[in-house]
Specification:
Length: 168
């Protein structure tokens, strides 16, 4: 959550609730909705680390609101983050550990686990298809997020088939 919030602040100062709304609008319903409390905790940490600076803004008849702006260090952190490649091979896959250890434990059959996981992936894919149909077609970021999730699910389904072939 740290770096996405910093990236949003490159546009200019904002308060936590605005950042929450911006994330929701940008990413759509497919992305887990950010918790406003967690956003404010993260903003506090970013401020303590010198990546953002906060300022209390007075409001007539309402409590002050705190807006945040990016510092030079924050700009540099966003720039470095955007320049980095993402290297996340799924070597540490929890489900794979389950099917690898199930025969050793004697508590579950790997094929049963594979079939259960396949049903879960198919249900999730169906839910994402519904979400894609309901989502604003003009929100290209949200549509790409959903499409990416579905492609990952399809790859996972293909991998489950391969696992089942090897374990039967």
């Amino acid at each position: 959550m740290r770096l996405p919030l910093l990236a949003l602040l490159t546009r200019g100062p904002a308060h936590g609730y605005e950042l929450k709304q911006d994330l929701e609008k940008l990413l759509g319903a497919a992305y887990p909705q950010p918790n406003v409390g967690q956003i404010y905790v993260t903003l506090g940490r970013l401020e303590k680390s010198g990546l953002i600076a906060g300022e209390d803004v007075e409001q007539a008849g309402r409590p002050n609101k705190r807006t945040y702006r990016l510092t030079d260090a924050g700009h540099e952190a966003v720039r470095a983050w955007l320049d980095e490649t993402t290297d996340e091979p799924r070597v540490r896959d929890e489900f794979f550990m389950k099917i690898a250890l199930a025969p050793l434990s004697g508590l579950a059959d790997p094929i049963t686990l594979i079939n259960r996981q396949r049903r879960q992936y198919l249900n999730t894919m169906r839910d994402l298809s519904r979400l894609a149909a309901a989502e604003d077609r003009d929100n290209k970021v949200s549509q790409l997020l959903i499409e990416g999730a579905m492609l990952h699910l399809q790859a996972d389904l293909d991998w489950l088939e391969r696992c089942q072939e090897e374990l039967e």
